[in-house]
Fold each of these.
Amino acid sequence: MRLKAIVAAVLVAGLGVGIAIAAEDGTHDARSALMKKVGGAAGALAAIAKGEKPFDAEVVKASFTTISETAKVFPDQFKPGTEKGDKAASPKIWEDQADFKARAEKLSTEAAALVAKPPSDAAGVGAAMKALGANCGGCHEKFRIKTE
């Protein structure tokens, strides 16, 4: 159990370095890397919620930390000019940037609250994921370019 806690702490510490580097980039690849971090965290949480993996408080905390920290820097990845080109971001981001940033802040705040007071079982993880997922889905629906 102590080894799991150490591994989770190392993963979270490493995450901060990755986000700090990506936060300065502002490219499609940086945005994609950040979303993959969120996807990995959500996948770990989903496996616990579905009973595919045993409940692990350290994994839960590290996953919500990843989501919170990523959401903090994600809006900064949309630098001027990234709304053009073959890997362009949706122009809707600039049309309603206040809403875009508010959604990211809400996700970060809600995930941080789950780090401070994490669910204590798989059912709680599932409920938390449902709440966070609604925020993620709403942002994707409004701001993500749909690809075939």
Amino acid sequence: MDVRRLDLLRELAERGTVHAVAEATHRTPSAVSQQLKVLEREAGLPLTERRGRGLVLTDAGRALAASATDVAVAIERATSVWDEYRNRPIGTVTVATFPTFGQMVVPAVLRTLEAVPGLRVVVSDRDPDLEDFPDLAADFDIVIAQAISGERNWVRRGLRITQLLSEPLDVVLPVGHRLSGQTVLTPADLADESWIGVPVGYPLDRLLSSIEAESGGELRVVQRVSDNRIAEAMVAAGLGIGLLPRYTASGPERGIVLRPLAGLDATRRIVALSRPDRAERLAVRTVLDAIRVEAQSVAASHTAPEPEELTTPRWV
């Protein structure tokens, strides 16, 4: 069987439609369909079947698509061994990240990798509310993903998962707030507060719902913004309190203070996702190692925020 046709079958399994496969592989849909028919004749079994206006894989097609992944991994592993002998992690590595991780990790990684000849890293930012991080792995070598509760469907997608860091999500208060003198806050402390929230559906919005359920009070969301700097400015102005990731949040110099939240799992877990064949490339492993090292360095440089000594409260 032709490896290139096997790869088209695998792309269909990953992307779901012939049209999507055609776009990703720079072919016409008819050319993709033609190649799949040739592969089907070579296999001697039906690999796809018509469902509505589209094609879906048969059981035999899904089995062969899984085998195509194994073939792709083996090819990339062999290429990687040769690159290691030559000590040449060359080529372009594409990375998709959400903004706050890009802010705290990516610049230092790019600076470090400038010293590697022949290696080019191309970074794209994606919205933090994205649920389908695994889908991006079809188009990017490394996808930086976040979740507040577990790994979602990442494991079931057959992707390589590299743990990068666990980052606390702290309550952000204006300087002088009545709660800023406490070492740790609980949901009960936050009952009946006004909040600067995030758009509905964002991971942090679900955490706000959990705080409300635990506190027994109503959390009034007075504004919803997706940009953390805008949220910080609103909190500093005394318009409400909020939640922010600890490592990229500002501090008293911007008119805000952070306090840890107890009683809930207020942590976002950040991982890197890759297709298993792409994860074998020496260039991809080189970039991923640099990302992991920098992420660990960022985590090690942060400690829990200290309580504020209150004199004259500004906000009550």
Amino acid sequence: MTVSESMNRLRMQREALVTAALEHVPFDGWTMAALRSGAEDLDLAMGEVDRLFPGGIRQAIITYVEMTDRKMVEELDMLDLPSMKIRERIATAVKTRLSLVEHEKDTVRAALSYLTLPQNVPLSLKLTHGTVDKMWIAAGDTSTDHNWYTKRMLLAGVYGSTLVYWLDDKSEGHADSWAFLDRRIGNVMQIPKITGTVKKAGKFAATPFKLGAKLAKCMPTPGRVRRQFSA
């Protein structure tokens, strides 16, 4: 087996375990207990959890985000994005990414709560950059100068703030979230034309993490979530 094949096999095993654990995360949070319950569902030995995730929950959340990002790219590849205007491409990418986790809001909240802990902010930034970078690539971005960074920082702000809004959106078909998304895109589309773009982009990039920190404060503990689900 080649190194590439071995890495691909490990990725698939990790994703299978994370997928199984998703049934338990709403009750136990992103914890080793959730991963062990997922392993039991797959009839895996408990030692497999430590083998597949030596980095613990941090590594499991990375797997979850990257797995969903890959699904997003697959979905976007099936669409005729080149025929759309750039703002439509970006809106479609964000909608696609959020729609993939439409039935996993409690799981996403728990992941966001973990990622907004002070020690995890660098990881949060890295994962967000990975997501928006894939969105821009799918949208056909070919920039190589400072615009490359600016576009990603701006989209990080749009995506992050829309994510937080979407998590509490009860409107039919998330219509309110998509209207919010369109307004945010409309606002930032003008920013590259303004002097001091990078400075402004930085402010937008910080938005999801400020909002995420507020969300983390009101996150229910696993015990409270368990009581809510059992009520």
